[in-house]
Amino acid sequence: MRRAIAIDFDGCICQSKYPEIGEPNWHVIEEAKKEQEAGAGLILWTCRAGKELDAAIAACKEWGLNFDAVNQSLPEWIEAWGNDSRKVGADEYWDDKAVIADTTCILRSATCYQRKNK
To answer: Quick one: how many helices (H) and strands (E) in the chain?
Structure first.
């Protein structure tokens, strides 16, 4: 199965301006494209629905970002596991509100995580 990356829209792919579309976060967009070119499957992972979701998908396409799935696991993951649970299955979750939990502490930022793992 391809490696799966679920990426949040508001606050991650673009600035948070819900229900409007915020300015693109080019660093995240370019990193996502690199991952996809390397073989990863990308999942748009957002609470948006209806016309707001359609606008988010259109903005991503305009910015050159095309997803393999939207708010669900990759098709091959669904087939392999035999279900499509409410939680999107992924190897990585990119989210501006992420908290990294491990057995010894809660890490609240990528900077903290990088410091801990040096």
So the answer is: 4, 6
Confidence at residue 114, expressed as pLDDT on a 0 to 100 scale? 47
pLDDT in tens, 66-80: 999 998 877 776 677
Query: In the chain, where are the structural domains located?
Result: 4-116
* Terminal Cα-to-Cα distance of the chain (whole angstroms): 30
Fold of the 4-116 domain? Rossmann fold (3.40.50)
Residues 83 and 38: their CA atoms lie apart, in Å, by 26
Work out whether strand 4-8 and strand 92-94 pair parallel, antiparallel, or are unpaired. parallel
Say what the pTM is.
Answer: 0.79
Rg (CA), the chain: 15
